[in-house]
Design a protein that fits this description.
six-stranded mixed β-sheet, 667 residues, single chain, Aminopeptidase, globular, alpha+beta, 3 domains, eight-stranded mixed β-sheet
Length: 667
């Protein structure tokens, strides 16, 4: 007898039927169990994982009691399991609406129902189980008990998680809904995290117990019809445990990062992506922000020009391409390594050599972050410059003022940014509830697009940043995965990067499992002028490929320049110069073979590709095409169509891209 889960109205129900099917029901509730890392309320994703595990368990649970002599137990367990599922469904809906009191009550009800179901096992007694021949570790009844125990621990985890989140949600609502004072928000949030870190620990412990209960189940003893479901439940529980560890680490370590132990100092890097560099742009100015008890104690801004002038004899080796524009390594060029944590080490050393102190982390920003805030809060007056800086003119006006100051040798060219920063921070502190909501969403989007990069010297917090994709790391893809990262460095091309349109196309050919060929075509069009600050765009470009990729051909690079082939960050790196004049289009081609073969199992294999976006590289599109040999085809549209050539992606290149394609081989 098969089983299916049906959700109609407010309560889900488990229905036994002769054949298991999935069907759409326009009147039934739709439960979205996907975890979407692009949404800021990521704890909702954790609850969705929890729900998947519970419902997967119920599907299996209704099957293990379908044998003779267990009908009454099956019916009561199904009833209580269905009730628990209903509680969890309503808890998830409440969480999505941020109704934390309702969510907490539903988790408590789920816990009660699971406890009641487990009580049935205790009421049976060991002697009855032995007489029924259900006492063996692999018996169906004990498998059901482990599943229910796992569900109970997950419900308890939900209770602890909501208990920890409720004070934070309540306080945030006070800021973004009622418009409470934001000036001491950091201190209040830090105190809430400290007070509730224990609840996160309890939730993590419950998830680990749930994981342990599921792992007691030997898949060999599970009915084959449900083995895949239980396996996936085990995997999801482990993933939930890992996610809870991240959340717990963040809750416990973030107060320290906010200066609740000792004051913390963070170096903010202003990366001008009009002069594109590997981690986002030319570092024109920096600011040190001191935090104590969640409050900003001081902001001290400076220019890379002044700092570098005090450190012209640094012992930090200068990369060869940078020798074309400078005789010594300075902070302005120190983000040469595309891997942001590596660049941070260079920046930190040069900053200290120039007279700056040690810092506890770095945050890199492109100008779009500032213009987003100005678009929300409104323009800022700088009467001493006779300027009103807005989202529309911020980049243009500040650049113009820097040019004017640069011509007056006694002026600090970046003084306008130094004067602007404290006013912007004060504007943020006085933002109203509507502005806070919009600013929060804007900052989150910029983090996802890598226009904001964050580094913490605290290894645990840095690990969290890496998992969230905010650390600016060069990724380490799984084995046998294709990889591409194109990195520009504008060296001597003024502020011309904003005038470049980037069109990238990667074509993959797989004519044999061990013969995978890629052809990269990158077309650059200069839409600007020769007038300063625009001008000729001169780039040193590096293309990061899977380690061991064999380069067969390169075309289009500057004449009389060499191709540099090296290795870095576990990748093969191809480097070359490319100069583009205004109104000109240049195209480069790199052909190469991959160093791995596809592993076909039962006639099927997966081709996977990871493409990273360079921070600050705007006006870009990316497309990917794949073609396979005559004895293969591509399964597209969920297997409804088979083709030998397909376009897997074509869109604006605003964030990292992951592509997965299934191949089928016939002989």
């Amino acid at each position: 007898m098969g089983r299916r889960l049906h959700f109609a109205g407010d309560q889900p129900e488990v229905i036994l039927q002769s054949a298991w099917t999935a069907r759409a029901n326009p009147t039934a509730q739709v439960l979205n169990l996907e975890f979407d890392s692009t949404q800021p309320r990521f704890w909702v994703g954790l609850i969705r994982w929890l729900l998947f595990i519970i419902f997967a368990s119920l599907v299996y649970l209704t099957g293990i009691f379908s044998y003779g002599g267990a009908q009454s137990i099956k019916e009561e367990l199904t009833q209580k399991g269905t009730a628990a599922a209903g509680n969890l469904l309503q808890a998830a809906a409440a969480l999505q609406n941020m109704e934390v009191d309702t969510a907490l009550a539903q988790f408590q009800a789920a816990d009660k129902n699971f406890t009641s179901a487990l009580g049935l096992f205790a009421d049976l007694g060991q002697s009855h189980l032995i007489m029924a021949d259900w006492s063996l570790p692999d018996s169906q009844i004990w498998l059901g008990q482990d599943l229910l125990s796992s569900g109970q621990h997950l419900a308890k985890a939900g209770i602890s998680l909501i208990t920890a989140l409720k004070p934070l949600v309540t306080y945030w609502d006070g800021l973004t809904v009622t418009g409470s004072n934001f000036n001491n928000a950091g201190e209040q949030i830090g105190q809430i995290l400290i007070a509730n870190a224990r609840q996160i620990d309890i939730a993590l412990a419950e998830v680990k117990l749930a994981d342990a209960a599921l792992r007691k189940i030997r898949i060999q003893s599970v009915d084959p019809a449900y083995a895949a479901t239980v396996l996936e439940a085990q995997s999801k529980t482990q993933a939930l445990s890992e996610a809870m560890e991240i959340l717990g680490g963040l809750a416990k370590r973030l107060p320290n990062a906010m200066g609740f132990g000792i004051p913390q100092h963070y170096l903010f890097l202003n990366q001008n992506n009009n002069e594109l560099r590997p981690t986002g742009g030319f570092i024109g100015s920096v600011a040190v922000v001191e935090l104590a008890h969640g409050n900003i104690v001081s902001i001290s801004a400076d220019t890379s020009q002044r700092l570098d002038g005090q450190n012209k004899y640094s012992d930090v080796p200068l990369p060869d391409p940078l020798k074309a524009i400078t005789a010594y390594y300075g902070i302005r060029d120190a983000n040469w390594e595309p891997n942001f944590p590596t660049a941070v080490q260079t920046i930190s050393k040069l900053y200290q050599q120039a007279g700056g102190g040690s810092v506890d982390g770095m945050i890199a920003l492109t100008p779009e972050v500032i213009t987003d805030v100005l678009a929300i809060t409104g323009p800022i007056d700088l009467p001493q410059y006779k300027l009103k800086l807005s989202a529309e003119n911020f980049v243009e006006k500040t650049q113009k003022q820097i040019e004017i100051a640069d011509q007056n040798l006694h002026d600090n060219p970046k003084q306008i940014l130094i004067d602007f920063m404290p006013i912007l921070m004060n504007r943020l502190m006085s933002a109203n509830s509507r502005e806070l909501r919009l600013i929060g969403q804007s900052l989150f989007n910029r983090l996802m697009n890598k226009d904001i990069l964050i580094y913490f010297s605290d290894p645990q917090l840095e690990k969290v940043m890496a998992i969230l994709g905010w650390s600016g790391e060069i990724k380490v893809p799984p084995p046998a995965t294709d990889y591409l990262y194109v990195v520009e460095a504008n060296l001597g091309g003024n502020k011309s990067s904003a005038s470049i349109v980037r069109e990238m196309k990667l074509a993959t050919q797989i004519f044999a499992p061990a013969e995978i060929k890629d052809s990269l075509t990158a077309r650059y069009t200069h839409t600007g002028t020769a007038k300063f600050p625009d001008g000729v765009n001169r780039n040193y470009i590096r293309v990061y490929l899977p380690m061991g990729a064999h380069i067969t051909e390169t075309l289009g690079q500057d004449a009389d320049t060499q191709i540099d082939i090296d290795s870095s960050d576990g990748k093969t790196v191809v480097g070359f110069w490319l100069t583009i004049n205004p109104s000109e289009t240049k195209e480069i081609n790199i052909n190469y073979t991959l160093p791995f073969a596809l592993n076909f199992t039962n006639g099927k294999a997966n081709y996977n590709l990871q493409v990273q976006r360079q921070p600050g590289a705007n006006r870009a599109v990316f497309s990917h095409y794949i073609e396979v040999g005559e004895n293969m085809d591509l399964a597209v549209n969920s297997g409804s169509e088979a083709v030998r050539k397909d376009m897997t992606f074509s869109d604006k290149f605003t964030k990292d891209i992951t592509i997965a394609t299934t191949l089928r081989k016939y002989r």
